[in-house]
Amino acid sequence: MLEKLPLKMDLETKEVLKQLSKTSRALAELKGIANTMPNQNILINAIMINEAKSSSSIENIVTTHDEIYKAMVKTNDSTPAAKEVVDYRSAIWEGYNLIKEYEFLNINIIIKIQEKLEHNNADIRRVPGTVIKNNVTGEIVYTPPQSKEEIMDYLQNLENYINQDSDIDPLIKLAIIHYQFESIHPFYDGNGRTGRIINILYLVLKDMLDTPILYLSKYIINNKKEYYNLFQSTRNTNNFESWIIYILKGIEQTAGETINIINKIRDEMYLMKQELRSKTKIYSKELLEALFYEFYTKIPYIAKILNVSEKTAQKYLDMLVDLSFLTSEKVGRERIYKNERLFQIIKDLT
Ligand SMILES: Nc1ncnc2c1ncn2[C@@H]1O[C@H](COP(=O)(O)OP(=O)(O)O)[C@@H](O)[C@H]1O
Ligand SMILES: [Mg+2]
Question: What is the C-alpha separation between 196 and 22, in angstroms, rounded?
């Protein structure tokens, strides 16, 4: 039987504490560097797109950046997988906005995230039969709680654990929360992805980060076997040390990589700023940030940001195409302008 939280054991073992201090340091460094970025949304958008892609691919929803781009600008030939990735990003944004508003993370918010992800209101499982299988052999490895009452009971317990302050470090708690959420497995589908969104929301909720910019999916993909094995070995031995260290290491590594991403985007923005200044007369901070907000932009958006007519905005954008800052294509009746350099940076990260 799945244990309720808090676990009645000492989680702060010597090995855990050793790793914890490295992880905390890396995360604090990331938090500081992220806060020096003038426009946080640029970073969030860029990083989230890759997380949405990676987290989906853990669940065998596999796509490419080019397909994601098509889904984002709504070309007719975008694939279902790419659409799911774009929705995944909306689900993270939704969760983030909700916890910012309410300053806690409850069952309702978790359900809302999962709904956004799966486009349905399937709600918590009510029909028994959901099991976790080994995806190679098909053998049942774990049977989560089956009745809706039981599931709700565990979720309520998890909600309390998430929101109550305790003397255990939030990073250790994050590892426990992820294990527990996946073990409750409250939905028919989308548990993995929802659980990984809960992780980032929890980091923000506990002020470990100010914005949702640290995601473990890439690390999990690179250490996927361990991810699955650890669920089971933790369950079998009731020893959480390896699991906690696995998650803490992931946060440490990812914090380092995220710092690199920030630096890359910042360098590219700086470069473009210099070029815009030397080659055009239209440089402004607002324009530069708009070009990096997503890896594509549209005429009405630029018109609004710069407070100019759409005709003028189009003139600017077309000039930026001529100067090779952007590429452009027509999608339906709209013209889309793509920042290929930012797109390349994002692509290179996975
Ligand atoms: N043995 C296990 N015990 C608990 N959770 C597991 C186990 N193996 C895998 N998981 C979790 O279940 C997730 C898959 O569940 P699923 O509902 O299909 O989510 P999604 O649709 O997002 O893939 C994995 O990503 C992982 O987080
Ligand atoms: Mg699934």
Answer: 22
